[in-house]
């Protein structure tokens, strides 16, 4: 199934929404012999269309990732209590945050319509498994469908739904977990073990993600049975990365000594560099996606622009010390050098 992407190195540049993934990163990853993936999450349909146009012009294989709706409804009273606390933080930036929960689907149906109208080689989903009718429609359009999963049980569900491949994500991965059950604590199972468990139980190719930051780690995961390694955090400082300067600087700040799982920024578990916002608000934050994302988003944007990392979601996996300022192609080729 991966063969059609003509990869000479089994490395996938993870889709990273919120800025880091750019069309240039996608093209560079594919040109290096790996596979690049656009990130459609949070973007308008028009913005996705514009990025597709740029990558299509290169005439190369690529994938695109969508957030599939799997709402985590927020309790309205808990939302208002948390919003009142976070508003105090926003006051110092002169911002007014949404007082009531905003729920939406991130234009899921519109994005699917776009990808059916003008099909792409690969579509991947995270957060939820889309309806089988959506999966089948994409497959009829010759699109390979990939589902992000975090446990053997989720892998079985994705297989049942009819997807072609799995993106298997470990708890050490940077950014949001693709867990289908965001309120349930994530299990710290090593990626190598997860790959062995899932490949033994489910007959689908596995793209393995989470904490892969060295050539040895990539070799180990391929030996464990993964069809390819997916890397995100190691690309955050790449030449083609669109991660904010504030985010990139935090990754090399010696004072940032650990990553933690947090739902304080978005109401869904995600891994990032520990900062003051997480320390102060993790215990107060309700689960609730996308409402908590929409609540804190204006604050995070303003803080990133103002160079205040303690109010920014500094998404990073445990391998962040290996993120280097180099071309994407060099990073990917080095990661494949032990194979
Ligand atoms: C900044 C950032 C943004 C991310 N955004 C997305 C996304 O939009 N969709 C998605 O499926 N995964 C997203 N991820 C998770 C990656 O796809 C991947 O699972 C993860 O980066 C792998 O772990 P690593 O960061 O340790 O390499 C993101 C990760 C990071 C670091």
TrEMBL record:
Q: GO:BP terms for this protein?
A: response to toxic substance
| Required co-factors | FMN
Name of the protein in question: Propionate 3-nitronate monooxygenase
Keywords linked to the UniProt accession:
Detoxification, Dioxygenase, Flavoprotein, FMN, Monooxygenase, Oxidoreductase
Organism in which the protein naturally occurs: Mycobacterium triplex
Catalytic reaction annotation: 3 propionate 3-nitronate + 3 O2 + H2O = 3 3-oxopropanoate + 2 nitrate + nitrite + H2O2 + 3 H(+)
Q: Does the keyword Flavoprotein apply?
A: yes
Question: What PANTHER family does the database record attribute to this sequence?
Answer: NITRONATE MONOOXYGENASE-RELATED
The molecular function terms in GO held by this entry are: dioxygenase activity; nitronate monooxygenase activity
Spell out the family assignment given in the record's similarity comment. Answer: Belongs to the nitronate monooxygenase family. NMO class I subfamily.
SUPFAM superfamilies, per this entry? Inosine monophosphate dehydrogenase (IMPDH) (SSF51412)
A single Pfam family it belongs to is NMO
InterPro entries named among the record's database cross-references: Aldolase_TIM (IPR013785), NMO (IPR004136)
